Write a sequence for this structure.
């Protein structure tokens, strides 16, 4: 089995629609794909309707969190999307995205960049607007060469010149909310240092004690020594280890299925979940 547990669609900051994403996953030879858009479940129903035969969909989300001033992301799988407390918190995070993006546009204009809110909103479309949409606008304007080049202290990185904070969950609260909704939690790319500051390794043990299920190990932003270190931390704290592409379509260079999760780990994630079940494809047409 080939299993990719971290992808994004146009419901957040990917460039593939949910329909295109599941069709692409099948074409890439995946057996299981998780749709984990940022702070939203808005793409799930379209993905389910379009799900090709032979491909299983894991519903999920990537939650924006912050611990002691450091941004981090929490992958949540197979939770009940209608659980009211968790749904309210996701809505708070989503609602803060627009004023935050407008604030970053204003900061960029103060820095002499001729970016407009109208163009950023157009790029985001119906998705949850975020920094990758601003980064795409910066590429269009020739300010940076690539989306990743926009995530530096000079521009949009945490604490960067054009950075603005948004409402983010405390990760311990995120774990509690996801568990209460029957879901499973995995700390996304925990040592992706090229993205900026990371939470200290000691936090992984603290999160594990609070109920964290796993950590994402095999990821494009982790080199081999980092992966080895994370596997050691996972063993120390009895955490599951996952691998995934963090696919964003053309917005990033990673490919669907570039990194995958062991089938036994996937089986354990499904076993632990009580809020939703993986959806087998029935040859949908979208």
């Amino acid at each position: 089995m080939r299993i990719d547990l971290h992808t994004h669609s146009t419901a957040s900051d990917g460039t593939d629609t949910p329909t295109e994403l599941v069709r692409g996953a099948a074409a890439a030879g995946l057996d299981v794909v998780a749709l984990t858009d940022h702070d939203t479940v808005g793409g799930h129903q379209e993905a389910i309707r379009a799900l090709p035969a032979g491909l299983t969909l894991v519903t999920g989300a990537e939650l924006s969190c912050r611990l002691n001033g450091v941004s981090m992301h929490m992958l949540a799988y197979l939770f009940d999307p209608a659980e009211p407390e968790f749904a309210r918190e996701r809505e708070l995070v989503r609602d803060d995205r627009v004023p935050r993006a407008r604030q970053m546009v204003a900061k960029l204009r103060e820095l002499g960049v001729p970016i407009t809110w109208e163009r950023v909103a157009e790029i985001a479309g119906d998705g949850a607007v975020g920094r990758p949409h601003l980064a795409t606008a910066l590429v269009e304007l020739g300010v940076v060469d690539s989306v990743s080049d926009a995530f530096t202290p000079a521009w949009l990185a945490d604490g960067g010149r054009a950075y603005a904070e948004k409402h983010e969950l405390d990760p311990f609260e995120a774990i509690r909310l996801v568990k209460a909704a029957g879901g499973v939690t995995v700390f996304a790319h925990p040592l992706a240092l090229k993205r900026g500051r990371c939470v200290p390794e000691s936090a992984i043990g603290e999160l594990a004690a609070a109920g964290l299920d796993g950590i994402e190990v095999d990821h494009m932003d982790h080199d081999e020594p980092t992966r080895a270190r994370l596997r050691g931390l996972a063993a120390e704290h009895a955490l599951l280890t996952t691998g995934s592409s963090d696919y964003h379509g053309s917005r990033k260079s990673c490919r669907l299925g570039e990194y995958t999760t062991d089938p036994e780990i996937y089986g354990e994630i499904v076993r632990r979940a009580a809020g939703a079940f993986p959806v087998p494809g029935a040859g949908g047409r979208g």
The CA atoms of residues 205 and 237 lie 6 Å apart. The longest strand covers residues 56-67.
